[in-house]
Amino acid sequence: MITMFVTYAGNAETPFNREHWIKVHMPLVRQCWGPYGLERVDGFFPGDDGVGLIAVAACVFRDKHAMDAALASPETAQVMADVDLVTAVKPQRSLALPL
After folding, report:
1. How many CA atoms lie within 13 A of 15 on its CB side?
2. What is the three-class DSSP state of 69?
3. Range 2-96 has CATH code 3.40.50.300
4. What's the average model confidence in pLDDT over 20-31?
5. In the chain, what's the furthest Cα-to-Cα distance?
6. pTM for the full predicted model
7. Is the backbone of residue 58 left (phi > 0), alpha (psi -120 to 50) or beta?
8. CA-CA-CA-CA torsion for 42, 23, 53, 78, nearest 10 degrees?
């Protein structure tokens, strides 16, 4: 398995539509990337720890090939377009690789 963390930087004043992210965006991610090997996606809102993160999604894929296939898929354009309905913040990706 491989986990891709998608982070959104900001603060309490940064516009971020939590309801849309939870009720629309997360199911869209599952729908679009599930066929390529996304096993689960979870999102959370970090407390104000001074790091400046307003939301984090953890996308767990079967393996790196599955993640690469999902990101290269035509459905990724739909996922990214929906981000614009959540926030103007551009998400950053990072990977957690198994040891």
Report:
1. 6
2. helix
3. no
4. 97
5. 38
6. 0.90
7. beta
8. 90
